[in-house]
Amino acid sequence: MKLTLRIWRQSGATGRLVDYALDDLSPDMSFLEALDVLNERLITSGQEPVAFDHDCREGICGMCGLMINGMAHGPEKATTACQLHLRHFRDGDVVTVEPWRAEPFPVVRDLVVDRSAFDRIVAAGGYISVPAGSAPDAHATPVPKPDADTAFEAAACIGCGACVAACPNGSGMLFTAAKATHLGVLPQGQPERYSRARDMVAEHDALGFGGCTNTGECTSACPKGIPLTTIARLNADLLRAHTTRSDR
Amino acid sequence: MSTVPSVGDVDTIGLYRTTIGKKAVMAVTGVALLLYVVAHMVGNLTIFSGAEAIDGYGRWLREIGAVWPTRVALLVCVALHFVAAYQLTARARKARGRYEHRRRVQGSYAARTMRWGGVILALFVVYHLLDLTVGWLNPNGVPGEIHANVVADFQHWYVVLAYTVAVLALGFHIRHGVWSATQTLGVTTSRVIGLGVAVVVCAGFLSVPFAVFTGLVS
Lengths: 248, 218
Known about the structure:
The complex is a heterodimer.
Chain A: E1 3-10, E2 15-22, H1 31-44, E3 67-68, E4 71-72, E5 94-98, E6 107-109, E7 112-113, H2 116-123, H3 145-155, H4 162-166, H5 173-184, H6 193-206, H7 217-221, H8 229-243
Parallel strand pairs in A: 1-5
Antiparallel strand pairs in A: 1-2, 3-4, 3-5, 6-7
Helix pairs in contact in A: 2-6, 3-5, 5-6, 5-8, 6-8
Chain B: H1 12-17, H2 19-44, H3 51-63, H4 67-95, H5 109-112, H6 114-133, H7 146-153, H8 157-184, H9 191-213
């Protein structure tokens, strides 16, 4: 099948969209494989290949992140760019490919952005402090099944950044809320529950992310379907952290 | 422990410094303004009981001394609501990415128009005060003659149109605002609640101009 990829090329401070016509594609290829085909061609002809992030290519690592036709990870629901197949496009389509764009995610080159802002949010409180030792018995701390399910749903976040890329406010609230929920509903996460919310939100804000307006763009773009209820949970924890002295 | 000044147990300044704290201020002031809007809407409906009912209701509000405390409270709420919205908007403008090609995935019309919709509502409130509170822009314009002023207003299709547009803008603002406020205060409710409140408020407010325009109230 044929596709024209209109790709953002950037090596310095600014960039531009460049058209690449590809006519030897298979509908069974993933979107990243189409970029591979393009890059082989570019390398063979002595041109600079398109830089893009990728790793596992099975939708669980969170490395690949592309704005495809104006939608984070492309048109398919709950699908990462690496799991998006070309059969979802029509033969002859022009497909625009851009990097994530947000103030805290500077473009490094072409389609690669620096997402270390997410690492800093996690470093601010997205962890549980425990004395490490041998693994405890699996049943040593009982966890109610609904709590385990809620925590697992939030823990499915792969930190790809689609929520920020899709948000009209450039907010990282869904990511922050996923981490706070994942740890905050489990018994092991209780001692630091409110300080975690306070510290992660403070870091989120300090990094220049926008505030949440509950439009829901993030959750519909999220390849893991992290629900907006996580944001309500984070809001509740943050409010409690700032209104109850003993929880600060 | 936080070192910023606190009011009792509440770390007010620390909370307001966060984006969520600013949203909480918007949520609380928004709920207060919504309660006023509902009370205002219910008060308007007294016009269906005749001229004396609504004029008497107006006199009663003054007699119990409800007018000026309410005005001050509303002004404080609007100011806080606006300042927080302005700060969050400025922040969002800086944070958001600009794409060459962008398609909206979800975001309802109500959610997308919260900011400019709010500005339009503020401008409408100025007109509304000059019309039915001060009376300068009212064809009758006699303070205290609520029924006569309202009837004089809604004889004109353009006044009915202006109020209809404003009430619909209010409905959209409430529709997303109610859901967003509850979410901000830590409870996820159904979006249907916001829609229901918006429909009731719109129907209540619009019943008066249309009743006058069609001659049902005169």
